[in-house]
Specification:
Blueprint lengths: L6 H10 L12 E2 L3 H9 L7 E5 L5 H9 L2 E6 L5 H7 L6 E5 L7 H9 L4 E6 L5 H10 L4 E9 H8 L9 H9 E9 L4 E2 L6 E8 L10 H13 L5 H7 L7 H10 L13 H12 L3
Parallel strand pairs: 2-3, 2-5, 3-4, 5-6
Antiparallel strand pairs: 1-8, 6-9, 7-9
Bound molecules: S-adenosylmethionine.
């Protein structure tokens, strides 16, 4: 099968199957071959790798992944795309297509079945409407993954690498930086997709850490504190934590913990580093 990554071949296959793009499912297919080439290069995919692709669409990126990887498992939610994938991936013997929702797919089982339990690599041109839930699931559900190379909306990429005191810094930045070493790999303009999205995109490379950069007694409490700290951005950290329904600390306890860290009582959550959030959750944990 000829490669799909150009406007002519994409149009042809879409017309042949009378496929109509569903905006609701984030369907913007790649039509520039340099993008899948660079995704494969950024992910450093070799024949030793088993790659999970989220949302293969008509199989554009899948074709490049299949050539570089040992195995590809592609999870696509849209039933209309399954017969198309059968045609466009015909001849690539190392690809398994799963019809399903990535948020309901057991990737631990995929790793066991397709990669002897070893870590998977994730590669995707993500459906933007669920970028954050997908990334958070992959990070927190203890799925064996060594890296994620994913196309996201540029603003989301900026949030992933943002540091304290910036407008983009938030719960996503801290979660991504706790579990991975994120890098912005390369920008992708709307002209590389069909149909063209209204936003700019960027490919991110998230290398999963063997060990988090800070050690905390209770990871769940750390992320509950982080979510609460950014839940009400205009409030002080002490008030945000004391008012958070998901936490049960009093204002006195949160004020004392902040003071013990040598921080100002009026400090805002966005000023704290990951290390400081780690320390704060450790101190708050003592009140439980
Ligand atoms: N990989 C293709 C490409 O690069 O041309 C298509 C990428 S398109 C941006 C996103 C794909 O994700 C679509 O094919 C869409 O149907 C699929 N998708 C949307 N929601 C999904 C979900 N929950 N689980 C799996 N796939 C999903």
């Amino acid at each position: 099968m000829e490669k799909l990554a150009n406007p002519k071949n994409t149009k042809e296959i879409v017309q042949k199957y009378e496929f109509s793009f569903r905006k609701k499912l984030g369907q913007n297919f790649l039509i520039d071959p340099s993008v899948p080439e660079r995704i494969v290069e950024t992910a450093q995919i070799t024949k030793d790798d088993c790659v999970v692709e989220i949302g293969p669409g008509i199989g554009t990126l899948t074709q490049y992944l299949a050539e570089a990887a040992g195995k590809v498992v592609a999870v696509e939610v849209d039933r209309m795309l399954i017969p198309i994938l059968e045609e466009t991936l015909d001849g690539y013997g190392n690809v398994t297509v799963i019809h399903g929702d990535i948020l309901k797919t057991d990737l631990g089982a995929v790793a066991r079945e397709h990669n002897g339990g070893r870590p998977l690599k994730i590669a995707a041109n993500l459906p933007y409407y669920i970028t954050t839930p997908i990334i958070m699931d992959l990070l927190t559900k203890r799925v064996p993954v060594s890296s994620m190379t994913v196309m996201v909306q540029r603003e989301v990429g900026e949030r992933m690498i943002a540091g304290p005191g910036t407008k983009d810094y938030g719960a996503l930045s801290l979660a991504v930086q706790y579990y991975t070493e994120p890098k912005m790999a390369f920008p992708v303009p709307p002209s590389c997709f069909m149909p063209r999205p209204k936003v700019e995109s960027t490919v991110m490379h998230l290398a999963c850490r063997e060990k988090p950069p800070v050690e905390v007694p209770d990871e769940e409490l750390l992320f509950a504190v982080i979510r609460a700290a950014f839940g009400q951005r205009r409030k002080t950290l002490v008030n945000s934590l004391a008012n958070a329904p998901s936490l049960s600390f009093t204002k006195e306890q949160t004020a004392e913990a902040v003071l013990r860290m040598g921080l100002s009582p009026t400090v805002r959550g966005e000023a704290l580093t990951l290390r400081q959030f780690g320390e704060l959750s450790g101190l708050l944990g003592e009140y439980r």
